[in-house]
Amino acid sequence: MIFNTLLAILITGNWPDNGCMNDQEAIWVELISEFGPLYDEMKFNQRLSKVAKLVSSAFGGSKGSK
Known about the structure:
By secondary structure, the protein is mostly helical. The chain has a domain at 1-32. It is built from 2 helices and no strands. The protein has helices at 2-12, 26-58. α1 (2-12) packs across α2 (26-58). It is rod-shaped and about 55 Å long. The termini are far apart.
């Protein structure tokens, strides 16, 4: 539930309670400040992995040629 709530905050920009960030429980603000950068890094790493696989397959990386 916590993961889904943090993900929803990041994706939609809507907080669990009414109002802006200052109106939220302190725990949500603290969690999102830690979770946000980790989530961004995870998305970046997934994209990097996809690009690396495409480049590898384009240059025959699985065949050992360079």
